[in-house]
Amino acid sequence: MPRADDLMLRIYAAMAQNERECISGKVRAALAAAKARGKALGGDRGYRPKTGPNATAVAWARHEAAERAAHRLNPELERRRSAGVEGHAALARLMKDQRIPTPRGAYAWTHTTVARVMERAANASSATLQLNRIVQRLSDRHPNLEVQDTAPVAAAPHATTADDRLMVRAAGAVA
């Protein structure tokens, strides 16, 4: 409105206010008719959860998913490193070119993604070694200790080898 003067702007404002009042009247009439028909207006419709979100459980699930992804992807990275590919950026380019999905399922590998996967896998390996050392110390101290290869330990849910799946039982109680 390049040529709108003060009078035109006041007329447009009055028209807009009239339109708002008309819409408001129509909405009020529709709500009154719905209420007369016995329709419940406002309030809870039953789609709200009974409890709020559990941030701890969500964080733990995210951590577990990252651990499993690192355990799944680390052999791919190690295979390429043993083939002579050095550096996180070079590994990322190769993984992207070979269309290997990232931990989140995309194909956009970065040097940071490679570093995080390798770090998580290294931490998981060290946790397994620590667990094995603990089991060895326990079995040295307690001759009646029985080590069974039957169930995964909660600390290593991504475990796939027999050494990673240790369940320790001492005197009939799970330790």
What attributes does this structure have?
4 helices; 3-stranded antiparallel sheet; disordered C terminus; elongated
Report a brief summary of the structure.
The chain is mostly helical. It contains 4 helices and 3 strands; from the N terminus they run ααααβββ.
Question: Strand percentage, roughly?
Answer: 5-15%
Extended strand count: 3
Main beta sheet: 3 strands, antiparallel
The helix count comes to 4
What distance lies between the first and last C-alpha atoms, to the nearest angstrom? Answer: 80 Å
Instruction: Choose one word for the global shape.
Output: elongated
Order of helices and strands: HHHHEEE
Question: What's the mean pLDDT score?
Answer: 79
Supply the helix-strand structural class.
mainly alpha
Query: What Rg do the Cα atoms give?
Result: 32 Å
Low-confidence stretches are 150-175
Helical content band: 55-70%
Walk across the major sheet and give the strand order.
Answer: 1-2-3
Give your account of this protein's structure.
The structure is a single chain. The protein has helices at 6-36, 55-82, 88-97, 111-141; strands spanning 145-148, 167-170, 173-174. By secondary structure, it is mainly alpha-helical. It has a domain at 58-174. The chain has a three-stranded antiparallel sheet with strand order 1-2-3, with helices on one face. Strand 2 (167-170) and strand 3 (173-174) form a beta hairpin. Residues 150-175 have low confidence and may be disordered.
